[in-house]
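Lecture notes, unit on protein representations.

Consider one protein chain, 186 amino acids long.
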Amino acid sequence: MSAGLASQLPDCTLPEIVFSGRSNVGKSSLINKLLNRKSIARVSSKPGKTATINFYNIGFCRFVDLPGYGYAKVPYEEKLRWSGLVEGYFSSGRHIKTVVQLTDIRRAPSAEDMQMIDYVQELGVPCIVAATKSDKLNRAQTEKQLGLYDGLFGRRQNTEFIPVSSFNGDGTEEIKKIILGLCGHK
C-alpha cells in the first residue's frame, strides 16, 4: 500500500524496517534485492519518482520506502508535502526496528543524510548506513571511501555501516541478517 498524506498511513500492525535516502540512491533497488524480487518496488532512472510512502508486507515485518530527498526539480509545494508526510510517519508511534539510511559510497554523505542519521539516533532507533553502488569503485577508491565512512560511523552507537551493491548483492546478506535478528526471525 502507499500513503501520500500522513492521514493515509496504515495502522502499524508489524515491526517496520524503514528505507531512507536521497532521490535515486537505490532504495527501491535494495528492497528488491533483499526480497529477491525484480520489481516489487518500482525502480526509476529519474529521481523524485517515489512521491509516497510505500509499504511492503513481508509477513513478519513491513518494509517502508520513504520518498527520496534532495531532488531540486520537484516543486517547493511537493517538497513540503513530502516533508510533512515523512514527519507524520515518524511521529505516529510506529514500531520502527531500524532505519536503513542509504548513501552513495562514491561520495561523502550529504548534510541531509547526516541530518537523517542524527534524527534517527535521537529517536533511539538503530540505523544501518547502507553505502550503495559499491560495485562502481575500484579497489583504491573503495579503500579511500571505506576510511571516510569508518571515520564518520565507526564509533557511533546504534549505527552500523555496510557497503552494498544491488547489482552484485554485496552487503545484502549482512543487512538481511540484521533485519531478521531485529524482528526476532532468525
